[in-house]
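User: Quick sanity check before I run a bigger batch. Here is a single chain. Can you write out its predicted 3D structure?
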Amino acid sequence: MKKKIEQIAKVCHEANRQWCEINGDKSQKSWDNAPQWQRDSAIKGVEFRLKNPSAGVDMQHQAWLKEKAEAGWVYGKVKDEAKKTHPCIVDYDQLPDFQKKKDTLFVGIVNALK
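Assistant: Done. Predicted structure follows.
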């Protein structure tokens, strides 16, 4: 099951990377070149979805927020790996539509591939 979770996480990551590129954000690296913390975050997102299949997209985001807080990340206007800042460390309803759609994409992929 661990291998399947990682495969789903990879698909989610790559879809999100493409979504970002389509919307002008070319900062995302491919799964194979992504830092381990980023891959681990996607894996944890898949694990959450599999354990909580009826959770709303907002709860998926809350799980991501919790994971980030536990790793020492805080809100910042710019995503910065070294400073551990991220502009999406806000409540789900405060996310821009672009980010909400990215979360919806993640959830839809996990649901389709589980």
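The chain is about 60% helix and 5% strand.

User: Great, the batch can go ahead then.
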